[in-house]
Amino acid sequence: MERFDLIIVGAGPSGLSAAIEAAKRGMKVVVFDENARPGGQLFKQIHKFFGSKEHKAKIRGFHIGEQLLQEARDAGVKVELNATVVGLYQDREVVVRMGEEVHHFKGDAVIIATGASENMVLFDGWNLPGVMGAGAAQTLMNLYGVKPGEKVLMLGSGNVGLVVSFQLLQAGCDVVALVDAAPKIGGYGVHAAKVARTGVPFYLSHTIKKVEGTDHVTGVTIAQVDNHFQFIEGTEKHFDVDTVCVAVGLSPMSQLLKMAGCEMEDNPKRGGQVPIIDDYGKTSVPGIFSAGDVSGIEEASSAMIEGRMAGVAAAEYLGFMTADEKKTELDKLSTSLESLRQGMFAPKNRGKNITETEEGIPISTNLLSKGFVADDEIERYPGVIHKAGIHPVIECTQNIPCNPCQDACNQGCISIGDNITALPISVKDSKCINCGMCVASCPGQAIFLVDEDTGDGKASITLPYEFLPLPEVGAKGKALSRKGEPVCDAEVVKVRSSKAFDNTSLLTISVPKEYAMKARFFKAE
Q1: Which one, of 179, 177, 244, lies nearest residue 216 by Cα?
Q2: CB-side exposure of 226: number of CA atoms within 13 Å?
Q3: H or E stretch at 451
Q4: Is the CA virtual torsion 140, 141, 147, 150 positive or negative?
Q5: How far apart are the C-alpha atoms of 243 and 132, rounded to whole Å?
């Protein structure tokens, strides 16, 4: 039986982060993962992360995965793939199936970082081929380059449903609707807004009544629900689709912790059955720790910090660092993690009906119910200003822990301040040089460079664009509103792509000047 100082189950963001911290301190570390490639969810995440520089903000998930893998290799971490851990027994004995063989390992400490699995909701036709989890669709697209379908309906408006809907559009799928039984959007407003302005309709307080088809999906019927989530007769709507994606939450994969005898609890705010742990992942069983979604559903940025905390705690537990060294490291990591747990979407605010931002500005009711901020609402936010010449217009309307726009602008045009969840401010007395870094850096694609009067009755709008084929200069089409409706004719007058933009192109369109504050997407003829 081979022995390791530390055995980690799961080579996702939290598991790799834990392995790096432990191995840096001289521990012999192995990571087991049942998949054929490491990185967990990171390599499916082609969008840019939120947070600050220390949280790897504005870096795409798969790039973060590459960085973690390189760090792990440099630290001497052993990663075993296609290795399914089937048991965690007394004295931290770990049983692993590799191919047709079963192997036994012993760890002086064990960290469980198995993540979470997708939830499913039952409806008539839920088991037809073509009904799949949003994560499965993301795997097909971003790992294997396969379109999940041609015409897709998305069920669920949390961040997963919103992000995957946008990625389906990027893959060339037609997303016919985004549906949620809840009365308001569950994820970040900026994610919803970038989907809505492409023309995808949102149906809140609706859910699937029936998926049609015999051997595959051919259509779906949705209907409105009342306050008790019961169908309202006569509200049915039918869509011809070949795919239904389901994004209705995640459940921690905590079976190994339960098997090991760790004290558990049912905690809906953390996603379900989770271990009872201290602030650094220590369970009730000596030498066993947990990190990431297995101990509570959060973002990947939080999971990476939790993994590092668990790695540090395990290192101190086994004597590879002193208690003082542990405290110094964990204090820094705790501060970083706490900054991500602030704002309107903080764990402490789950289930609360928040009606104002931290600045006292009324929340956009239209954004919550329809996915986009209405024209008569947008002007009340500090990122939306009017001035002569090119200037940033920042349509970020919720308190999200994110500040790369402030870091990206070296001209002082954008200010967030020391509070990472504050709404960004477009500074009136600043001078924009039209570099476009703020537009490309915004993970929510919520920044536009606007010149409200370029002469001849025209205005120009520079917007983020992540679709192929990229329109060429001179291309004509329609400018779409925040709702995704055509509002006026538009012409592409400039296209910019740069390595510094990290695959976000900047599209500058010319529109009649009365639409300068309304046109937010371009659709070619």
Answers
A1: 244
A2: 6
A3: strand 447-455
A4: positive
A5: 8
CB atoms within 10 A of CB 3: 11
Q: Which tokens sit at 110?
A: 């064990």
Strand partners, 344: none
Cα distance between residue 49 and residue 157, in whole Å: 18
Q: Which CATH number fits domain 120-246: 3.30.1490.20, 3.40.50.300, 3.50.50.60, 2.60.120.620?
A: 3.50.50.60
Give residue-wise pLDDT tens across range 294-338: 999 999 999 999 999 999 999 999 999 999 999 999 999 999 999
Q: What is the CA radius of gyration of the chain?
A: 24
Pairing of strands 174-180, 151-155: parallel
- This model's pTM is above 0.85: yes
Fold of 2-117+250-340: FAD/NAD(P)-binding domain (3.50.50)
Please write the tens of the pLDDT for every residue from 160-196: 999 999 999 999 999 999 999 999 999 999 999 999 9
470 DSSP 8-state letter: P
Q: Name the more confident of 206 and 41.
A: 206
Instruction: Give the Cα separation of 320 and 337 in Å (integer).
Output: 23
Do the Cβ atoms of 115 and 41 come closer than 8 Å? yes
Q: Are 471 and 507 within 8 A, CB to CB?
A: yes
Per-residue model confidence as pLDDT tens digits over 123-169: 999 999 999 999 999 999 999 999 999 999 999 999 999 999 999 99
User: How far is the CA of 256 from the CAs of 29, 115, 263, 404, 449, in angstroms?
Assistant: 19, 12, 12, 38, 51
Which of 133, 204, 197, 195 lies closest to 166, judged by CA?
195
